[in-house]
Structure formats: structure tokens, C-alpha cells
Amino acid sequence: MVTTLRRVAFPLRLAAVRLLHRRGRTALLAAGIAAGSAVLAVVIGGSLVAQDEQTSRALARVPAAQRTVTAVYSDLGVSRKGATLQSTEPLVRRALASVTPEKPVPVLQYKLLRIGGGLVNLAGMDGLDHWVRLTSGRFPSRCTPERCEVVQLGGQGPTPSSPGLRFVKVGEGVLRSPVPFGQLPGAAAARIGETFRPERQPPFALAEGFDSLASLPALSGFYRTYAWVVPLDPSRIHPWEVDRFLSSVTSARATLKSQSLFLDLVAPSDQLGAARSTGEVAGRRLLLIGGQAAALLLAFALLAAASLRRDVDAAWQRLTWHGARRWQLLLMTGVEAGFAALVGGVVGWALGSGLTALVAERASSPVGAILGHSVLSWPGIGALAALAAGAALVVLLGLRAPAIPLGGRGISIIDVAALGALLAVLVALARGQADAGSLSSGATGTVLLLLPGLVTFVIAVACARALGPGLRLLERTTRNAAVSVRLAALSLARSPGHAAIAVTFLVASVGLGLFALVYRGTLQHGNDDRAAYAVPLDFVVREDLAPGRLVPPLDAASLARYQSLAPGVDVVPVIRESGSVGAFGGQSRFTLLGLPTRSNLDLQGWRDDFAARSLPDLLSAIRPSGDVAMRGPSIPADATAIVLPASVVGGDVSVQAEVLTPRGRVDHLDLGVTEGRAERLLRADLPAEARGGKVIALDIGRALAVEEHASEFTRVDGVLRLGPLSVETPQGRDVILDDYAGWLGINGVTPVGDAAVRYLVNEAAERRFQPRQVTDGTSVPVIASPRLAAAAGTGGLLPLRVPGGILRARVVGVARHFPTIEGDFAIADRRLAFTALNTSKPGSATIDEIWLGASGRNDEVARELSRPPFDVLAVSSRQAMASELAGDPLSRGTVLVLGGAALGSVLLALLGLSLLLAGDLRDERGELFDLEAQGAGPALLRRHLRLRGGLVAGLGLGGGLGAAVALAALVVAVVTVTANASAGGPPLALHVDAPLLLVVCAAYAAGAAALVWAVTRRAPR
Amino acid sequence: MSAIEARDVFRVYATPEGDAAALQGLTLQVEEREVLVVLGPSGSGKSTLLRIFSGLDRPSAGFVRVFGREVGKLRGRELAQYRSAVLGYVEQHYSRALDPDLSARELVGVQLGLVGTDRKDRERRADELLERVGLEEKRGSRPAELSGGEQQRIAVCAALAHRPQLLLADEPTGELDAASAALVYDLIGELAREQGCTAVLVSHDLESTGIADRTVRVRDGRVSEETGREGSEETLVVARGGWLRLPEELLARAGIGERARAELAGGQIVVRPAGSESPRPLEPEAAVPIESATDGRVVAETRAVRKSYGKEAQRRLVLDGLDASFGAGKLVAVTGPSGSGKTTLLHLLAGLDDPDEGAIVVLGRELGRLDREARAALRREDVAFIGQDPGLTPFLSARENVELGLALRKLPPEEAEERALDALTRVGLGERVEQRAGRLSAGERQRVAIARAVAAGARLLLADEPTARLDEANALAVGALFGRLAREAGVAVVVATHDPLVVEQADATLELGGETLMSGS
Fold first, then answer.
1. Cross-chain residue pair B391–A323, CB shorter than 8 Å
2. Mean pLDDT, to the nearest integer, of A615-640?
3. DSSP annotation string for A926-983
4. Which of A493, A421, A518, A427 is nearest to A460 (CA)?
């Protein structure tokens, strides 16, 4: 046993001696490993900082009123099935304590009270001076059974009182924060929240003291809601706490619900869950960089192994002569490699932790917790251990990997590993894309972690394999070249393995660095793409869907007004409809977009990869050849009423005129009801907006008398005889249509003669009599998404179900994506779509959006859009959106990490190059001495070494560039998530920022040249 | 039981030019405790034989048993066990054999350490051996602080520390001067006998036979001759199948060239030339003094040159006020024990190093006044240097290697090719000009390096131990070549050597170490 221990100890001692005498080389190896390790640590830590900021921002975006954990309980102030406030409150407090350690604020709010004939919103809480800012008077005292002082926060009218309880208003004020009443149900919450509108509301009275107000005998039996509110500080919940928080919310809610149906607990769980999910996606995507760092580290380890190989070979040979066992040799070399890997790994990890701490400090994240949950967590330390072990193993394999004979050639373990890596990449690609969904589920994490490393490894090994024959070829082709060139080629060909390892490392490091750069550019460009996709010109103006606003863009202002926002503004009115199409065994949703098809329409959000044809080409395919404006008798601008003489033979009907207003809306004007055979003058006043418009249809419906007793099966039929359609103007009555020839009847309406129609009216459909339109009997050419196009029948005909009915579309072009649209789509000419839809159902199509091109006057246009009459509209700005996307913490974090990784990789490449050059000089001292002895002067030696170094560096750069683009293309194809880790928008497109790439390549070349120059400054001897 | 029994051993290597047989049915038996010296020219297969004995290589056919173990079948643990328990191995390149990071005492104890011997026992044994070889004072020194002879003595101690049954030594004095070599031979012989171990020593140095119980010669991968203890007669060995290799000298004297006829005459086999064969001249050419064709003017000289190495306490003075001149048409052999400054002197004359004091003058130009570029130009024009390491590109042919050297000297390709072929023919490699350097034996590579220098047509030729890897015949031929170069072409040839065959050819000898002496004309 003792002997065995001594046999183990002896190689360890040899390893220690060797390490001691190779401090410089060990330090260099450790430095390389430290650099890779530091990058990995920063990626892991930085990712958590970004997630923390993301969580914090997501929570901050939740309105303050809802950013609380609130337990609510409602009763009538009397015992209900044994449950009282007194018995419920401890339960509630315990439940809240399990979610958050903060103390809750108890709030009581009565349902709108009618007291003494007046209405009042009454609420109470403790510590009013903390929550209310007085504008007049003083804070109220606590309520007594007879008197309750209140402060009025809003509303109008006197504070009512009852004989048993007198309310006394002692002051007025405003709430400092909507938090206490944010989660309370009912109208009051909305009113006193952030959208509080005090006008025309009963007074809102707030009393001091939760308990005193709750126990007022006079209010016993009145419905009230108790709330215990804990405000959430956005900076207090961190990514690693989200799961625990959500599960404690669920658990507390279940506990409360199990006690009483009237108990509930609300918290912004959805927002937190979404933030966590997005953060996880970003974090996992950053694994790409982690994988890159790890790959780089291992590549450096391989390089170091190559530079140590000659020395280790000699040691193994010596010890083999002495009868050393294989395990003793492996132990010695393993300890040497492991020591450097461990020291490098730990130092790098410490450095990375320090950098993470700095980043966390700057992001105002808790430094200790960030480190404790990332690099210094058990998984983090495990990653470090795995990294060090992996690096040591790579060094060991690089030093001792035996060749496997195959078909007369030696296949090394590295080759086998490369084949395996290639297989893994292919399998990963075959399994599909890594989108936001799969990333958040974590299914693709391993693939992402390994992908850069695997791909780079395969490329590097392929380079290495090709390099040997390549260098021999180079040597042969330079036999008649200048002596220095010949010597450089010869020395490379003499040690192709060494050169191959050198070039392989440079390909890996430069490749990964440039990949980080290209991917960074791609993500940044992806942000711009995404903004441009959402806002194809500079601004998109649409109806604001917030309550109380709902003003269509053309109601807010005319097109001319939009035009006058700033000189040169390009105004593009757009129709947007949702519809469905019967295909694929069911109904499939799609978006119908009607937009101008003018040839100079320049959509920023359009990318050439969206379709095989160019946008102008596609637009020209759907552009109508002639006038497609809706036809109908024109209404003079000064007309005040519309008049139509009518009589029926049969059941009476009501008649409506559908008037297309100059702003593109359709007004339904009720002309009145017929009165049998006697001609009656049906008439309707023309609203101002309808004047100057066109009558595009006459609707025929059941008369009101019939309507009141109508059912599905009540039908009215007969013949309606129409007189000339006239308008009243200040000058008198003008006939605008006296001949209905060419008009069409729709749905049970059939023209009989020039001025009469037969009708059959029931509830099944609308009946109309309308002028023939240009779209009648034809189809509307559309650009369709591939799925919709696939659903089209012969001739590309595709019936689209839209709110106005069925639109007969004809697919004339296909595009994979179209700006502003997620999912399937059909794009039509706006005027044609307008006519077709409004023909099918008047009023079904209107201008929904205005796209604005600001002609470089973005600030001016934005300023104007924030003012009336545009301030009621929802305005999206491409520039603002791009800024917001770029400013997103995850996006910033990702871009920052990628930039850092690019810089680190290129620096590591230069460090590796210096290691190589120094190693070359050391290992080839004999050859260089021989050359000098043969008469080669220092200048020739320098030239030869510089050529050789330059060639290696150049091959590394060329290979690295190719590897970077290939890797970036692959990653972009596989990982579809954007910079801020969200899905949606156009797919990421590879974007090579050529000038930046050129600058970095030039910097690398300059650095490499400087290194080569510095190392060979003194001619070697 | 024999210590070693090798029977019909073949070793064939696959090469791009086809298979090459290093051993061709070699049969050899070594008795226990016998000290056997194996002699043979370079490329004869003696190193291969030793590698097979040590388990570093395996026979392609035949078998080798060492103390009953069939070495060719040992694998993994058994092989390591065999090496650690049975073998002691002394390498020719002691610098490769000794770990530069360990002290002499640690180096001697390495093999013991690997088998788990206690540190005290290890050190006791190391001290005992170091004392035995006179290096007890150097026990704490590392290889870099020791001379070549000292290092090789430590290597011998390291090989014997664990009391092996079999000591294998491959050209153990290849890089040592004669005095150091003699010391090492004696040491091997004495220690092997003291330890009671069997020893097989491979060498091309006849001096090594002094310690041998038996000497065998290996030629063309077979044992051709055998000699017993001192005074016993050399016998030819008849190999299996009746193969018998007659000495070339006998054949030449008998006028036997490419064909012979053997007949039995009265119980003896008589071998006669067949057909019209006539005696060939002896190869290599014997050293025949040739009158110098030059005026004997000085090509290079050293003036009061001092040179030392190391720093402060470790400082070692190698040349102390050396005054020497080297004339055109003269071959000067620089001799002296290892560490006496032979290589240093050549480096100084080539302008590859600078003296601490004094001056070096080559062709009338004081090298100290020239920068490195000018010295390189001087070397290109007028100086050829042959280092201890041939410095060839392994994948280039012998011709291409020589041409590359000439390209460095800016010779046009056509002339370079012509000169390369001529020089290679002169060093006896006329038939191997297209062979890759990596496939040539160590001796052949050395001859390519000599050809490269000869082809340069320099006025000063410097050679550092050019025959260290050559067998006797080739060493003799190289010495003669240098002599002819000096006398016919008027080249000043300075050869650092410990090879008496070269020294014999020299016009003068410069002996370094101790009192510097220049003898001869």
C-alpha cells in the first residue's frame, strides 16, 4: 500500500518540479484559460443582471395601482357563516406574510352608499397623512359611532349624512398614490386610480382608521370590501425569486379561497411570469456566447497543448525508458494540465465575478445576490469545475491523443470528435428551430450552449486537416520564389501539425470573435428591422383603443390635415381588416391590408427576403388599371337633406340611404318608411360630414311596425317604386339621380323596370339597391402569404371571409412576410379593397390607419402628433420603437456581452498568436541557427519569420471570417428570437456590418503585424 | 538460460519509397552477465536491434526472448514492468535522456521513484552511484550545469540505479570526446560487472570493444562477424540458410567484385572471382597525403580570444587568450575534452558568436567590426559550417536539401543542381540523391550536411564533430574528403572532432583544454 502511494506520489512530484520550472509557460496557458473562463463567468453573471433589470422593468411597467399583492374580502359587516372581519384578518395577514415580508396596508371601501338621499363613495384606512396630500382643511380624526370626519378626494356635491351618523368633511385632498385602492373591485377603484376623473361623480370621502370605519354600527349591513395591500417595489423582486413568489401567491390564494369564497388574493403574476419567461429566453440565448467562450477556452487549451507537446513528448520518452507506467505518465501530465486549467479557470472566474459585480453595481442590482445566484452558485461553481476539467482533458488529449488507423490513414481522436460534432450539429438542425417558445422551455439550451463550439470545432478541424496538404502544396509552388518566401513555406510545411494547430486556434478565436460581432450587428439590425416592420414608414397613427378615446384617424383629422403636419410628409391611408379563410380543414385567420399601390411607395419594413419578387413588382401586380372609386349620385356640398319619393305595392318597408362621406366613412341615413301605394316623400337631414359625399346604396328593411313583431320567419314582400333622388339645398331641391338604370338589387331585391324593385325582406340578410361598382363580378388581386396562396383554387381565386361578407380575391403574388402583419395575410390595393368591401357591405371598410413618412422631420411630426387634434390617437413611431428596443435591458445586455465576447476573442487570438510566435522561435532555434550558419542574414531570418507569422495570422483571419459568417448564418437560422428575446416581427436576417467588420479585421491584422514585428524585432539566434 | 535470445529477427519499415528492411534475419544470443558490444556502420540495423530488445519496437518476424520473456509480445503493464524491473537504458543523446529540471541525485533516482522506492533509499542509492563515478560533489547540479561527460555518467548511473538485469546502451559516447568516452566505457563495463548485469552496447567506436566480453558486427541487418575476449580471433558468422558475409577488404583483395564462385576444396570452401572480375580499389579512399596547391596564407585567425559562459559563480571560462591561425589548404583538427571550447571556437570563427575579449579575423576582416548582416554575407560568400545537427528538411530529398543551402548563397538553380549532385557523389551518396532526408540514416544525413558545405565552395569550412554518427569507413572517407578539399581546392578546413580517423588526416591539430597546443604544420 505504501509502495503504491509512493508510486502515485512520484509522478506528482515530477509534475510539481516541471510546473515550477515552467512558470512562464504555465502562466501563459493559465492566462488563456482565464480569459475564456472570465468571459463565460461574465456571460452567466451578466445574463442574470440583464434578467434582473428585465424583471424590474416589467414590474415597473405594471400600473402602480396593480403593482401590489392585495388580499380582498367582502361582507356586509355582520357575521356570515361564522366568518367575521376579526376572524378573517389574521388569516389574511398570515397568507400575505407567506408571500412578502412587508406589512400590508388595510383599506376598507363601501359600495356606493346612498345616505340621507345623497350618494357617497366612502373608504377608510390607517395613516391618511401618508397616503393623502391635503389641498385644504385638515386630516380627519377617527370615526365614532355618531360622527365620522372625512377628507374629500374628489367628486362633487355635499357629503351626505344620516340621522344616526354624521359625516363631516374636514378637508380636501388628493391621493399621493393609487396603490391602496388599485386592486379593489368596482367603480371607485377606477375612479380614484390613475384615470381618476372627479367630474360628475359623487364625492369620494376618506375616513381615518380602518377598524373604526369598519365597526360603525350605522353602516352595519352595508356591503363593503376590505383590502390588505402590500405595494411591490419593482427592484425588490429578482429573477431567482420569481418562481418562489409566484408559487407562494398561488399557495396563499388557494389557502384564502379554501376559507371563503369571498376571500381572494391578487398579484401581478402574469406580468412577472412573462418577464421571467423573456428573461429566461434571453439568458438561454446568451448561452451562445457562453458556448463561444467555452469553445474558445478549449481551443486555447488545444493550442497550448500543441505548444507543450514537444516538451511533454520528451518527458514521456525519458520516463518510458525508465519503465514508467502509462497511468503514471498520464497522472503527471494530467496534473500539469489540470493545475494550469484550475488556476486559469479560478482566476478567470474570479475576474469574471468581479466584472459581473461591477455590471450589477452599475445596474443597481444586488451584487451579492447576483453573484450568489450565478457565478458563485453551486451550478456556477459546477460549471467552473466542468470547464477546468474540460480544459485539462483537452490539453491532455491534445498532448497524448493517439491516432486510430482507418483505411491506411491515421484518424485522430480529434477527427473522430469533429465527426461527432458535425453529426450533433446536423441532428440539432434537423430537430428544428430554437424560437422563443423552445428557448423558454429550456429544451434547446444544450444545443445553444454547444452550437458555436461544435460548429467552430468542425470548421477548425476541417481547416487543420486541409492545411497539411495545403502547406505542402504551398511549399511546392514556391520553389522558385524568393528565398524568404521559400523558407517560410518550407518551415510551415516542415511542421504542418504545429502550423495547423496554430491556424486552427486562430480560426476558432477569430471566427468566434467575428461571429460575436456579426451576430451583435444582426441583433441590432434586427431591432431596427422589427421597428420598421411594426412602423413601415416613420409613424403609424391609429385609433386609440383606451376607454373613452376610440376616435378613428380620419375622424380626428382629414388627410389634408395629416398632409400639413410638416412639409413633405408622405401620408399613406391604410385599411386593415381581420378575416378568415376556409382552408386546411378549418377556418384560418388572416389580415387583409389595403394600401396604396403607387410605385414610389417605399416601405422601410420591407426586406428583399420576404418574397421572390420585389415590392414594386408585387405592388404593380395588384395595382388596378383604371378608376376604382365608388360610384353613386354625388351630393352637393351645400345640400342639407336628401329626399326620395317612394311607394310600395305590398308590405311597407323602411329605406336608408348609404352615403359615402368625403372622409371615407359611410353614413346610414334613415329616410323613413313607405306608406303603401301612396307616394311618400322619404327624407333625411344630411349631417355635415356627409355633404359632398355619394349615395352608394339604398337599404330596404322592414318597417318599424313589422320590426316590433318580427321574427326570423316574418317576411315582407312587394314592389317598391322609387322617384328621383334629390337633395335639398339653399337654392331649392336638386335631383341628383332620376334614372336607376344599371342599379343592382342585392339579397332579395330585384329591379323591375327603371325605377322599381321587387323586394323580399326578412332577417336573413341586408337588402340593398345600389349602383353597379367596378368590382362587381370581378376579383380583387392580392399578394398572399404562402399558406393563403396554397389555399387558393384554380386561377388563384380565393374567397376571403371579411366583416363585410365574402371578398373574391385572386392571388397574384406571394410573400412570406409583410410589414405590420403577424401571421397570414392578403394585401390588396387600398382603393380596390375599399370599393369591394363597401360594395359588399357599405361601411364595412374605412381607413383604419395612417402611415406617415416624415421626410426627415421626425421631431416636428412627433411634436405635432402629440397635440390636438391628433392627441386622441395612438401614435407609433419607428424611431421611438427602435430606441426602445435598443434600450431594452436584455437587448442592451446581449449586445454588450456580444461586443465584449468579440473583443475578448480577438484579444485572445492575439495572445495565442504571441504564444505561437514565441513557441516557434523557441522550438525552431536549431533550424534558425542552421539557416544563419548557412549565410542567412538577420534581415532574411526576420523576413522569413514575419512571412510565416503573417501567413499563419492571415490564414487564421481568412478562415475565421468564413467561420464567423457560416456560424452566424447558422445561428440566425436556428435561433429566431430577437435581441430582446421576444418573438414576433420579421425573422432575424443575417446582417454583416461590413465597415465594422473591416475595422475589426484591420485591427486584428494590425495587432498581429505588431506582434509579429515585436517578436521578430531582434533577429533570432 | 541465455539472457537474450534473438532468432531470425526481421524488422521491415514501410516507407513512401517502398518497404525497407532494417533487420534481415538477425540471430544473436547473449549470455547472462556477458558484456556485448555491437559494432556496425550507420544504417546497419544496430539501433533497431536495441529498440527491439528494449521493447520500444517489435520484430516483423522472428522472436526475441530476454530472460525468458518474449519481448515482442509484451504489452502495456507487462512491458512497463519489463522496462522498470529488467532494463537499464542509456541513450546516445544524454541531453534528451536527462530531465533538465532535476538534480543529479534526483535523476539517478527516477526509475526507483517510479517503482515506489522510499525517498531515503533512493537518495542513498543515488549517492552511492554518484560517488562511484566521481560526481558526489555534483549531486545537486542540474544537467545544464554539467559537462557532456558528466551528464552521460549520470545517465549511466540512472540506468543502473535499480540494479537491472540487462543494460542497453545506444552509442553512449556518440557526443563525447575520446577521454570522456573512455571514462564512460570503463564505467559501463565496471558497473555492469559489479552489478552482475548483462550489457549490450551498440557503437561504431572501436574503443568500446575494450570492455566487451564479446563483440559482434552487424551488417545489412545480420550479425556478420564475432570476436571473443581480447586476443581471440574474429570469426565470420554463418546465418541461417548459409548466409555468410565476407569482409569487403578480403573480397577486394581477392579481386571479387559483383560475382563469385565458391567451391569445396579439401574440406574448405574456396571463393574465387567469377568470369573477368578484377580487384576493385578500396572504398573509402585511403588517406593519401597530397601536396598542398596553395600558398598557405592565413584564412582565419584568433587573436588573444577569451570566451566564457554562465554568470558569476557559475561562470566557466572555455577559451583563455587563444591565438591560432588557420591557413588555406590546411585541414586543422580541433580536439580536446568535451567542454574545452571546440564548438565555441567554430562558432566564433563563423561569426555566430562573439568573444569576450580578443579578435577573430576571417579573410582579413575582423568579425567584431561587422554587424550580423555583414557576417552573414561573409558566410554566404566564403564560409561553410557543418553543425552537430545536420539541420536538414526531412521531406526534401538529399539533392533538394543541398540545393536549398546553395539557394541561400544565391546560386542560380542550374549551378546549384550541378554542384549538389557533385557534392553528394563525393560523400558517397550518389545513388541516394533523390531519397528524402527523413528516410536516410543518421550517418547519411550527416553526409548530406557535409555535401551541402562542400558544394558551397567556401574558402573556410568549419565542421563540428562531422563523424560523430558515422561508422569507421564513412568517417575515414569524410576525413579524406576534408583533406582533399583543403589540399586540392585550397580551403581552410577546421574540424572539431574527437575522431582519431579525422585527426589522422589533419595537417595540424589544435588541442584545447588545459594548455592549448597547436601541433603539425
1. no
2. 90
3. HHHHHHHHTT--HHHHHHHHHHHHHHHHHHHHHHHHHHHHHHHHHHHHHB---TTS--
4. A421
Non-local (6+) Cβ contacts of A330 within 8 A are A396, A400
Q: Nearest chain B residue to A332 by CA: give it.
A: B114
- Mean pLDDT score, B277-286: 45
Please give the pLDDT value at position B469: 64
To the nearest whole angstrom, how far is the Cα of B290 from the nearest Cα of chain A? 29
Cross-chain residue pair A934–B98, CB shorter than 8 Å: no
DSSP A313-332: HHHHHHHHHTT--HHHHHHH
Residue range A700-721, pLDDT digits in tens: 887 755 545 555 556 788 899 9
Cβ separation of A323 and B113 shorter than 8 Å? no
Q: How is A541-589 classified by DSSP, letter by letter?
A: EEE--STTT---HHHHS-HHHHHTTSTT-EEEEEEEEEEEEEETTEEEE
What was the pLDDT predicted at A467? 76
What is the Cα–Cα distance from A379 to A392, expressed in whole angstroms? 20
Whole-angstrom distance, CA of residue B229 vs CA of residue A256: 108
Which single residue is written with the C-alpha cell 536495441? B50
Cα–Cα dist A190/A211, whole Å: 24
Report the residue of A934, A943, A944 to disrupt the B interface, i.e. the one with the largest count of B CBs within 10 Å.
A934
ipTM score assigned to the predicted complex: 0.70
Contacting residues of B for A315, CB less than 8 Å apart: 99
Q: How far is CA B90 from CA A836, B77, B152, B155, B214, in A?
A: 101, 22, 8, 6, 19
Q: Do B390 and B444 touch, CB atoms closer than 8 A?
A: no
Assigned C-alpha cell, A150: 372625512
Q: Work out how many CB contacts closer than 8 A connect A with B.
A: 135
Q: What are phi and psi of A34, to 5 degrees?
A: -65, -40
Beta bridge partners of A685: A641
Q: Which of A21, A323, A933 sits opposite B352 (nearest CB)?
A: A933
- Which of B299, B365, B289, B364 has the alpha carbon at shortest distance from B328? B299
- Please determine, for residue A509, whether its predicted confidence score (pLDDT) is greater than 50: yes
State the first-to-last Cα distance of chain A, in angstroms, to the nearest integer. Answer: 51
Specify whether the CB–CB gap between A684 and A727 falls below 8 A.
Answer: no
Among A536, A562, A435, A436, CA closest to A881: A536
pTM > 0.90: yes or no: no
Average pLDDT over residues A987-993: 80
Of residues B41 and B37, more confidently modeled: B37
Number of H helices, E strands in chain B: 16, 23
Q: Please tell me the distance from the alpha carbon of residue A491 to that of residue A948, in angstroms, as a whole number.
A: 8
* Cα–Cα separations (whole angstroms), residue A844 to A495, A548, A744, A745, A826: 78, 22, 19, 18, 17
Residue in A closest to B112 by C-alpha: A322
Answer yes or no: is pLDDT of B293 > 50. Answer: no
Any idea which residue has 566480453 for its cell? Answer: B213
- Identify the closest residue of chain A to B113 by CA–CA distance: A10
* CA–CA separation, B393 and B448 (whole Å): 11
Of B83, B87, B408, nearest to A483 by CB-CB distance is: B408
Residue A722 burial by CB count (10 A; 0-12/13-18/19+): exposed, middle or buried? Answer: buried
Cα dist. B198→B4, B85, B165, B214, B217 in Å? Answer: 9, 13, 6, 12, 18
Q: Count CB neighbours of A846 within 10 A.
A: 21
Q: Report the candidate in A714, A715, A736 with the shortest Cα–Cα distance to residue A727.
A: A736
**Secondary structure letter of residue B436 according to DSSP:** B
For residue A760, count other CB atoms closer than 10 A to its CB: 17
Angle between helices B413-426 and B442-455 (to 10 degrees): 130
Q: 3-state DSSP call for residue A114?
A: strand
Q: What DSSP line would sit under B71-117, residue for residue?
A: GGG--HHHHHHHHHHTEEEE-S-HHHHS-TTS-HHHHHTHHHHHTT-
First to last CA, chain B: 57
